[in-house]
Amino acid sequence: MVSQWNLHSIGIGNIERFKKVGNFTSYCRCVGSEKLSNGKKKGRGNTKNGNKYLSWAFVEAANFAIRFNDQAKRFYQRKLTKRNRVVAIKAVAHKLARACYHVMRDQVPFDSAKLFS
Asked: Which end is more exposed in the chain, N or C (fewer Cβ atoms within 10 Å of the end residue's Cβ)?
């Protein structure tokens, strides 16, 4: 179980303040902030918005997941064949951020089989 004190100490606060999982991953800087119209880039959003420490933490967690979890490694390799290394790492970090949101909101244990299925 994740205590409320731990959430406040890492800068998340109350998890219910994020209405959707996308809001949480955006706060963790795990998604891009480009504005597209008709498939063309029309500008960039506020890239400095969110918690830079959570962004760093999820990238570090992604690096360890790739090293020690076979399912994460397969997902990373699949992304790496189509994109560069940074994008592939951020994709794994994004998946981990989504999983953390559900773990904290629903108070359930982490299951990598659900995450990388």
From this structure: N
